[in-house]
Amino acid sequence: MPQHRMSRRTHITTHNHIIGLPHFTFAHRSIACERHPERNEDSILVDELRGLAAVFDGVGGSAAGEIASQTAARAARQRWQDILEQHHIGHKMQPYLESCNDLDLCDALQQLVLEADEQVRTEGAHKAGTDDLATTVALAAFSRQPDARDYTMVYAHVGDSRIYLLRGDEPLQRLTSDDGLLAKLVENQIINEEDALRIDQAVRTDELSDTEFSYFRLRGGITQALGGPLPPTIHIDTISIHPGDRILLCTDGIHDNLTDQEIEETLRSEPRHASARVLVERSIQRSHQERSITVRAKPDDMSAIVITCRF
């Protein structure tokens, strides 16, 4: 059986009281691939008190992948802590951001991801004994909007780890676009966006032509990552988060096995504390299915963080 590796939560104590980001519940689960249960190349960062969450998927298929994702996670956590400490000089001390107007969140996340990239290239490479290591990242940070119950979420990603938003009766929204083969085919006008989505969400071979199936099989190839040969192009955006919203951050072990519809059904049906665990369990079940049943079955490390904005 795979070994479960849970990320450690960070706690901040101020005047002997732990102060956390209000109105949010964080649920998370990360497991190693059954083919190498002693080594999880995914890493997750869950800092509930400072309003930060991220998933990292190490690239390389060896110990270097594990080192890359762990190094990036540590660097991101430390850089976010430094940013908040600098911001709170002369302000009332809170571990999270009370007002999104007081700090350029997009610039802050740009700094954070670039620091993680640099640490993978230097510290990570030194520890791994090779510069052939890299990791994806999908990261979200939260700040309360002034005079409102709503929050701002700024999010960033590099590679093919994803961020989804589920809001009320609206369809599940994928907030990120993979740095991968399908996006490159769309960019080069070989296929259109509708065909790319259909290929990505296929369950059986009879849903695809032979050429489309070849694209499907290669869809996991990413075009950039942290620690790669070139500095990454970081995709950053912001969105308002309202009570009742659920945000999912996941590595490709989740979204390669499960379709977006299956992810949505799980997020809607499961309690907020159980949703990440159930997503991983259903991904494991799918990974065990025969190829004659589905083309999505893929043994992999699997990580999910589900953040619920409570009423």
Automatic annotation (TrEMBL):
SMART domains named among the record's database cross-references: PP2C_SIG (SM00331), PP2Cc (SM00332)
Domain of life: Bacteria
Any one GO molecular function term: protein serine/threonine phosphatase activity
InterPro entries associated with the record: PP2C, PPM-type-like_dom_sf, PPM-type_phosphatase-like_dom
Every PPM-type phosphatase domain range: 25-309
Any Pfam family: PP2C_2
Gene3D superfamilies: PPM-type phosphatase domain (3.60.40.10)
PANTHER family in alphabetical order: PROTEIN PHOSPHATASE
Name this protein carries in UniProt: Serine/threonine-protein phosphatase
Source species taxonomy: Bacteria, Bacillati, Chloroflexota, Ktedonobacteria, Ktedonobacterales
